[in-house]
Amino acid sequence: MKSKAAVQKKEGICYLAGAGPGDLGLVTLRVRELLETAEVIVFDYLCNQEMLRWAAPGAEVIYAGKKAGQHTLKQEEINALLVEKTSAGRRVLRLKGGDPFMFGRGGEEALALAEAGLRFEVVPGVSSALAAPAYAGIPVTHREHTSQLTIFTGHEDPTKEESSLDYARIAAAPGTKVMLMGVERLGKITGRLLENGAAPQTPVALVRWGTTGRQQTLQGTIENIAQRAVDAGFSAPAVAVFGDVVGLRTQLNWFEKRPLFGKRVVVTRTRKQSSGLSSALRDLGADVLEMPTIRIEPPKDLKEFGELVRDAHGYDWLVFTSPNGVDAFFEMFFKIYKDIREIGGVRIAAIGPATSARVRSYHLQVDLQPEEFVAEGVVAAFQKEGSVENQRILLARAEQARDVLPQELSKMGAIVDVAVAYRTVPETEDVTGAVARFRQEGADLVTFTSSSTVENFLALGLKLPAGMKTASIGPVTSKTIVELGLQVDMEATQYDIPGLLDAIRAHYGA
Fold this sequence. Notes:
The chain is α/β, with parallel strands linked by helices. It folds into four domains: 12-126, 3-Layer(aba) Sandwich (Cobalt-precorrin-4 Transmethylase, domain 1), CATH 3.40.1010; 130-256, Tetrapyrrole methylase, C-terminal domain (Methyltransferase, Cobalt-precorrin-4 Transmethylase, Domain 2), CATH 3.30.950.10; 264-293 and 427-507, Rossmann fold (3-Layer(aba) Sandwich); 298-425, 3-Layer(aba) Sandwich (Rossmann fold), CATH 3.40.50.10090.
């Protein structure tokens, strides 16, 4: 018979969390922790969807985005959804762009949960009211210019008969003024400020998609900024900054001066691998679309792979051609053995610095690394090493890899066994919304790190924009790019991620 505690219903909780202004680096550690443990995730339009890759497998992900004229769910429906999921004993994460209580209607959602007698917590986030101006080179306060900041919303409850904004007090308030969510009504709002005594020549900056690679900044004055926005087709989401501090942008504009700013770059590695390349490109200012085209899965014959791993200590050489192969090998190894010393005296060869680094992460030394990071380079390195005749070599690699390495080593007299450590299969999920963005906005550059990323990217059937360039990690990948009808615009001379980044920087004169 089950105890009372065993049958007691699990108590739910809802976390009302700020997802930050867009830059993934500004997402709090607490939000990442909650993403990894949430059972239900409800997110808004302004949330950077790339953070959803941190979500726990099996989490229910619900889009509740609202933008001008387009509401997936009305606010009352969102409130009811949060109450429903939390009442069911679920661990709910409500992600809101910026900060949940900074004009984010988080207060309304908290009240709905409180009135339902449900547990909730509030997790503050970095607000675009501060972050967007900072990324545009505008400090909202500065001792020589102003020590006062006024923040107001340009988007009020449309059901209200009269505005609750006191434009006379806003216009008269000294210092910097920051307006959120008012670009569509900018002409009306600046008109009301001018009617109430605001100086027509007050500097104004509009910052669109602040803190992201899509950031755009438009400057003007209170009397002309609305028309400039119309002329430039400047639309939401944007933050407006009013005040003398806007003039400091001339000296402090750091974000928009980075070498790849304004370039939209597609990263096609696996979801697990893409973060390092993506981070490096973002550091250079690129707007990165993480579009994993392949997914790593276990080999079809796991038993055979396990037997080869088990017997690795009986080989003379263990050869790894990728970090994925290293990880797959040792994941299996530690299911069989508890001690790394069980690997015995086998010598280890790794195809490049990234693969070597992964081997060293398991506290093992790499005995052989080729000068050229391709299969032919490994063969050349073994030839320099001396005779391998009658030596047993275990090659841990992907299922679809080229046969150059085992064939050439066999010709040299080695006894080669191939351990299929993993398979690459097409990625079918668009968790981050990158594929949808590519369809809508295109890209300036797409990076390819293997032949399979090329094949599976083209298999998506996307319309490629005119002028889009390609960057290849090396000659093998370049050969596939050309065979499939594309042009190689830049190729790494060192066949790894740092080499690929160097090629991109050189191409754009960075």
